[in-house]
Amino acid sequence: MKYESVIINGLLVLEDQVVRKNLGIRNGKIAAILEETEAIEPETGAGEGTPRILDAQGCYVLPGAIDTHTHVFEPGAEYREDFAHGTRAAASGGFTCIMEMPNSNPAVVDSDTFFLKKSLAGAGAVVDYAIWAGATAANLDRLPELKSLGCVAYKAFTLDAGPAFPYLNAELEMEAMKRIAGTGRVLGFHAEDPVIIGELAKKYSSQTWSLRLHEEARPYYAELSAISQILLFAGETGCPVHICHLSIPEGARLIARAKQEGVDVTVESCSHYFLLNTENSEQFDTYALIQPPIRSRGRMEAMWEYLQDGTIDYLATDHAPYPAGDKEPEDGNKWGVMGGAPSIDVAFPLMFGEAVTERGMSPVRFARLSATNAAKRFGLYPQKGSIRVGSDADLVILDPDQVWQVDRSKSYSKTKSTRFPYQGRTVKGKVMTTMVRGTVVYDGADICVDSGFGQFVRPEK
Prior knowledge:
It is built from 13 helices and 18 strands. By secondary structure, the chain is of the alpha/beta class. The strands form three sheets. An eight-stranded parallel β-sheet has the order 8-9-10-11-12-13-14-15. It has a six-stranded mixed β-sheet with strand order 3-2-7-16-17-18, covered by helices on one side.
């Protein structure tokens, strides 16, 4: 068989093992996993700019990362990020597919807003994309319509998320789960208790904001309380649920127990909950303001136990870059600052270096966390998320030994402030090549495709 591209000399991270073999690619798909001794006969007339041979000597070849939690802010706040910039940042960071969150303005809550989001993504994206739909207090009758359009999952908030995205109170959580159970879709939650946070806001709002007080005002038990209620209702209804951006080991313990009891729940967490804490990030001020907050060093370390043992199912980014105007309020009142930080261009190599190189996680488990588990949960497997014959050739070549420093001023992201966490951090492990459907979209230095190359992906069922 002839191939349009062949990756040679790399360590292929398959679903169950790491092997030194070559990879043949044809028509955007993985066509063959080849023994190193097999003859390679490249296809003549391959597309312009498509490499014939990619030498991955000394590198891992992993399935392209899938970000289950991306905020592009388009439509409504394009000055923060848009699909053209955000997906370029994603490609440079090893992500080949993003799952874009629905709480833009307008939010994705019906067919009109779904098509608006899809059209904007189609015009700008350089990697593939799926679209979350909102499950809000005002659109529960629209959920079947949104499924038919191809939403990858539903997203809800358990506390105030602004007028464009009315949150679900306890009764509406139960109602939403009853409607979604059996549909083949997952209901994801930003999980923090509104009463606890509302009461503590009264207590702390007159004090001078600090990162430590931010964590106290949105305490671990507010997250734990909301997760507990979600798990209770999921067990009652049979609805598949997803906990977004988990920040606390107490929540992981609760989820592990619920899984053992048969609750259909999965959970994501993000690089900042494994690398940042209130002790090492105070200097970043509001640029480290994230919701849920980064926690103490002790809780951060405890989170690693649940990443290693499989309780946490996937690594997301919660990419949400805000420029200085949003992070540095003119009136000096930092309690109203938006929570969020950029990471889609650095999270994958940062976590590979820390998890695999420093803490001994197997590359196979890392690939499950960054790609395979998400593809399976959200109905994108086996098209996405795995190195196997017939799957999309969404691939990352990563050099585990190359050392570099994070410099956000050179990011592809639209917001390039160097005050965000990770600025200046030394990283061991660099993305050398990112391929989407067999095409190199990032070659280690430049983006190699135009806006609009990315394609919409939807669950198989």
